[in-house]
Automatic annotation (TrEMBL):
Keyword set includes Cell division: no
Localisation per UniProt entry: Membrane
UniProt xrefs under PANTHER family: ATP SYNTHASE, ATP SYNTHASE SUBUNIT BETA, MITOCHONDRIAL
UniProt KW keywords: ATP synthesis, ATP-binding, CF(1), Ion transport, Membrane, Nucleotide-binding, Translocase, Transport
Sequence similarity: Belongs to the ATPase alpha/beta chains family.
UniProt keyword Ion transport, yes or no: yes
The name this protein goes by in its record: F-type H+-transporting ATPase subunit beta
InterPro entries in the cross-refs: ATPase_alpha/beta_chains, ATPase_F1/V1_b/a_C, P-loop_NTPase
Amino acid sequence: MEEIRLNVSLLRKRVPNLTTAAKNAGMRPATVSNLCTGKIDLGKAEVKTLVGLAELANCKIDDLIIRGEKRKMIETKIKALDFFAPLVKGGTTGLVARPGMGQVVILAELLHRFKGTDLKTVFLAPTDEHPELEGTIELADQITRGLEDTLEAIRRFGEQAVLVTDKEHVDSGLLFELQEALGNQDSTTTLLVDLSGKVSDDDFPFGPLETVWQLDADLAARHQYPALSPLYSASSILDERDADEQHFQLRQRARNLLRRYRELRSIVQSQGEGRLPSAEVETYRRGERLEAYFTQPFYVAEEFTGQAGKTVPLEQTLSDVAAIMDGRTDEQDVAQLQFIGSL
């Protein structure tokens, strides 16, 4: 069967405020968002939704459908990111979090890790002062402060460019101007953050996205970093099955296990583990181990944590996750899996 996906890049360029436009056209923003990230298979989309999107973008429906082209992921070697919601090369990723949940540390770690690759990072700085960015923004290969110098940097770096910026430049329209100026040759990988944290309340954060990294308040409160939500983070690579089938199936299994683990955890917190049904004890303990495994020491945090940063290739992560879910770590304490690299 031919692979098809939504032309998110075209939507982003043609419809700068898709949330409002979709609502005004009678479409549910959440449905549009799920089509962009692949949570909803494009082949199952309602015709009226595709017609509405084509009208908003002033294009034909065929222009909104990309056929047969595989997306490529940028492997960060951060277990939770690569496993649950891979970064799409040439796509747009939004980091959804409230202040204090670790989004700036994730951003700093990515900038640090990209320095050891062919990628070149451009940080389009916010106009407001953000003290929390001190020591992070300097990790970028180039810091820019306006349209022209950002354009110049991206054109110089070409397909290896990774643009990082705050939601402020989405709201002001500057990002839209930048993408318009780059035109059809825009192959920039874009990473959007929201330092205000207000994006967490939006139905359709940042507009069309190929990848959503949503941080989880409960994980952050328990210092389970990086606090990536395994249930609400998504990537078009996985949800459109552009990735390896083993990865897709393992991600589905892991999500199901962690979803049930969270339900059981609420029982344990209020009534104790002894109240768990005997048939669910194994599920609870494996979920606990899997959640612990997805914590990871970061290089940029070494001086604060005293733990050396760890790099884990995706292939190793897949092997480790399968081992945990198949019971091969049942004899290990949860603490033995906390903040490690690979098994």
